[in-house]
Specification:
Chain lengths: 194, 866
Amino acid sequence: MLEALHDTANEPAWEAFDTRYRPILIGFAKNLGLSDVDSADVAQETLVRFVQDYRNGKYDRTKGRLGAWLVGIARYRILDLRRVKAHRQEVQADPQIAVVVGTLDDPDRLQAAWDAEHRQAVLREAMMELRQTTKTDERTIRAFELVVAHGRSPQQVAEELGISVHDVYLAKSRVAQRLRDIVERLEKLYDEGA
Amino acid sequence: MAGDGREPDPPSAPKAPHSGKAAVRSGSQANEPDPLTVQRPASDLDVTSAEVESLVPPHASGRFIETDVFPGSGHPASSASGSSSGFSGSGCPDRESLELVAVGATNVGGVMEHLDRCPVCREVVRRLRADNELLNDFVSANRDRFDVDRAKVRSERPMDVVPGFRVEGEIHRGAQGVVYRAQQVSTRRNVALKTLLQGKFATSRQRARFDREVEVVASLRHPHIVTLFESGRTSDGLAFFAMELVNGRPLSDILKLPEGVHDKPPVLQLLATYLQIVKAIAYAHQRGVIHRDLKPANILIDDGLEPHVLDFGLARSARGEEKDQDMIEATAAGEFLGTFAYAAPEQLRGNPDLIDVRTDVFALGVILYEILAGERPYKPPGGSFSIADLLLARLENDPQPPSSVRSPIDPDLDVIALTCLKSKPEERYQSAQALAEDLERFLDGRPILARRDSKLYVARKWVRRHWLATSVTLAIVGLIVGGSARMAVLGERARREGERANRTLNAFRETFQSINPEIGRGRKEMSVLQFLALLRERAVSDAPTDPVVAATLINTVEASWLGFEGNRTPLERLEESLRLCRDAAERVGQSETRQVAEAIHNLARGHLLKSEFGEAERLYREALDVWDRVDGRDSATSAMTLQHLASCRRSQGDLDEADALLQRAYRVQKDAHGEPSWEVAAVINGQASVLRARGKFTEALDRFEEALAMIKLVAKPDDFRIGRAHGSVGNLKRMMKRPGALEDLTIAERVIVGAKGAESTEAIEARSDLAAVQLEAGDAASALQTIDMAIAAFAGLGEAAPRRCESYETRGHALIAIGRADEAVDAFRLAIGAASGTRANETASRCAEALREAGLVQEATRLTPP
């Protein structure tokens, strides 16, 4: 995917990149405590800057993961936001941003915020894939959904679907394993921007 | 990858004799169908069973089933017995017991003790917990989808969506509506049934838009526009309409097919289809309907290659009575991106007044281009990705001819496509009909009308309305384009920009309403100055919510205001405007913007008008620096600043620099606006002023006259600038004692007073000049009349009034000339009072001399300075 971003006319690549990373960036900023509007701004600025940097060849894959690079840009965008607000004397009116800025020097906190959002995004993308890869296995996914997503007891579900309780547990394990594979693969893709 | 159907080595190949699954299969479960496992690929076991093998406890009983990811192959916890739970105390507990422990149960008889002893079961529980954690995270990350899915199960039964129709399936789900394939029960006719997506919960605007589409489609009967069969609302309020069901593919799908695919029609065949599309649109235009959202996705092509134009959801009457927010709303909703490639520049500017049938001609041009070249005409410039750049590319450049992308393409087709794509509507085909006719000429092998070497339409002269109206309109356009210019490709920001444009239009609408005497503060005699004050008030009060909009508004108002107030413009206000613009720039994360440059320029002009040349010079140079950084050196935007700085330097006596600056301005303006244009004329005027300052009067007069001639070509007779140019010519003639000065200055006075009002600085100056020349021409009565009008305008202006000294002096001379010398004394006193320094002495001497000549020796003596 990153390669395709070099092609300025490649709108689908753009959309894919945006679809994938914008929600993470917004969540990341919110996670740090920014307002919805500020988070959206930070995400926007970060994407724009990343693309500029990327096109200018500043992003070096060997120097770190894509996520870390984006976190680095977002951090500066947040500082910038603070600077602008400070200039308008809004910081007092918006103490939250002061708190946020306070966390910016804590790499662990930043990484944790990113990881949480990143995982969220991966899990959401995994949903699509799970659906596709388990097409032939309708009952497995149904049993899993009823038990885990809808909170039914394995006994109820077993009865409803006409299978054994053990099969219900089996379905759960199976979906978990499949999900683990998908997540592992997606994590890799996300880190490489592939 | 799991589940991809690939068959790896059987991962569950037994490594320990007791875990052979084949044996188990044929044993306890061989005859029991297992619906959950039957179709599952073996790869499910890739990791786990391998791990499991190493975990199999020595006491495993062999009761296990195939392929459980549960790490219990060979472990009783994976017992297939299922329903039995609990733990007898001998061997390992069953699966259900461990599952219970994994979710936190501690009272599962004997299991906790067993776990203490059994590392395998401990590992099993650890894994189950990990599974549960992952699954829970997964479900909460997708909570909305699980819920939506539940809702969908209910709504996926559209059989009874609309009574009288049997729904057979969903064709398309768009931003606005859902289209079903259905059968009209009464006629057994197959139809496309369109309902509003939000169903009963649609907003009134969405309903209105939907109703409009119904109305528009119903009014059109054309073989290549989908036919409407029936429309209405169900008893519970769902809006729907049934239209002709076309069996075909969208043109967009056809265009996407790679070359040489057997079902991609050849270009010539597609051109015939395209001609039918153009004719269908021409038909709609003749019935007063503009489509406004033409794109290949909205055109279905059936198997006979006949086109069917769909989706008049954005259409509006060509007579334009609609209050049109749709484009902006569409932008706000993020729908705009899909349509962007087909939107004409005037649509991108968001000004609904500019949209007419030629907007559809543009979209047709893009489609033609795609058919010919196999790609869209506009590509973002190198290194850029933002809509802003796309937009600028679109607004500023014509695309490459299709033949440069793919050959061979007939040059005539290049011309036809590029004519449709002209950014100025007046240079395009003026109707879809005209396009259809030219295309037919081409297909018939006749020469087309839009030949390359002749512009089809001579650019109409720019209609200059009242210049204030023009500047306000330009401001609106500027806001929208400027707004878009910061709009990067993606989502949230675009939505907010859309809202901003919306708010700006609303602000203007409300302001205009506020001067409507029926609902606002307006009066018939309301002055433009009062209107400007209202505008600025609103802009300032809006600044906290949208500083960029406010900044642009304020600059526009300031520029207009300066034009009226001249040297009476309070600098504090200009400085405040500059502050607001800088704040706005900060707000959008930039240190410098065009608004900042404009505001500095305006402030500089305020100083220039007050003859504070040093400060004006400093500020103009600062504005130029900002322009350079924002738009590049000698950009079109900076030309006015160059000219003003030249005028400033001329006044300071540096005529060489003034000349150099004007030469730069000349190149810029000529590139940007061509000749004749008022912009170039203004530069020539400036050059004439420098020549005059150098004492080269004859050359100066030539240049002034050249500028006047050019302005007359581009402006209406009552345009202020014509008045000013006559003034320059007339004053120089007067100075050079050339004939014609009186005529020029008479025109100047009439036009300037008409345009700017009697109280404006320039009107007072024009009258003062005219009176002087009238007096010189021996017409003292007219001179007195003229100068009295100028003096009447002083009232309330105090010392800020221009030409006070000259005017009173002229009045005095005029009074003497008509035999009212005694009244002249007062006039001369006022003249001397209005002058300062050495000028006061000179004036006093002249006045005393005049009085003496009139026989008023005593009075003359009193005026003479000591």
